[in-house]
Amino acid sequence: MSEALAPADEADADAPRPQAILLTFLGGYLLGRGVHVATSSLVDVLHRAGVSEHATRSTVSRMARREQLHRVRRGRQVYVGPTPATREVLRDGDARIWRTDVVNTRWDGSWTLLSFSLPDAWQRERHLLRARLVWAGFGPLQGGLWIAPGEVDVRALGEGLGLDGRLRAFDARAVAPTDADALVRDAWDLPALAGRYAAFRDRWADTAARPDLPDPLAAQLLLQTDWLQAVRRDPRLPRRHLPPDWPAEPAHAVFRERYAAYEPGARAGAADLDVIPDEDAARG
């Protein structure tokens, strides 16, 4: 995972940062098309979604410096496209939206336990590792011990951090006298997780509360960004350990209904973007 694109790099506030909206745009409308998009198109679309021109251009410049975007000039126009590391993040986001159940109904009762112990001076490594653990669905159990439902491939979690020999992972099952419901409540902030879904549902289900946006592409872009904000910290906990009124599935139904409503207009708008093939952009 690209460190600068890890979820911890995004704001924890309800309003998404420009980078979150830009990444959603790249994942929703460029991923798989094999094209670079003109910065003027980015500025236009993100402005209609509520992001200023200055914020968009600053975000593009920062991501290009970090090698998260590839940037090339053609005449008077500059085109940008995701780098391979960014495409990995976009594919992960796409999977979370479209290919991951919003609630875990097929859990087999197993847990992945992960422990680590880092020197006090390794603050950067500790921060990045914890961000990756949260993104991978782990919750802190106690001290340096983290837990996630099901089997998790932990090999990539320490990639690039120099943690060889400092991570230990185990397959586990809860046995008496462990209260698995209490374990889940201790390791994850269930009210905060539920609150994100409830806020999404309230914002997009009610016509009066829904953002007033000028066109379907801007509306669908912000809808997807808001949904990713809701799901990005959700470990998809087993249904049997969640409250009976868990709001994830009702919120998901709202997301799918609104996405489908915006889809025809959004796709028409995306087709009008100023783009060039990746092959042209690769020629420098």
Structural class: alpha+beta
Indicate the multimeric state: single chain
Distance between the termini: 26 Å
Strand content: 5-15%
Q: Could you spell the SSE succession in H and E letters?
A: HEHHEEHEHEEEHHHHEH
Helix content: 40-55%
Unreliable segments of 5+ consecutive residues:
1-14
The total of beta strands comes to 8
Radius of gyration: 20 Å
Output the number of helix runs. Answer: 10
How would you characterize the largest beta sheet? Answer: 4 strands, antiparallel
Can you list the strand order of the major beta sheet? 2-3-1-8
Topology:
Layout: H1 18-29, E1 35-38, H2 39-48, H3 53-65, E2 69-74, E3 77-82, H4 84-98, E4 110-116, H5 123-135, E5 139-142, E6 145-149, E7 167-173, H6 180-187, H7 190-205, H8 216-231, H9 248-271, E8 275-277, H10 278-282
Antiparallel strand pairs: 1-3, 1-8, 2-3, 4-6, 4-7, 5-6
Helix pairs in contact: 1-4, 1-8, 2-3, 7-8, 7-9, 8-9
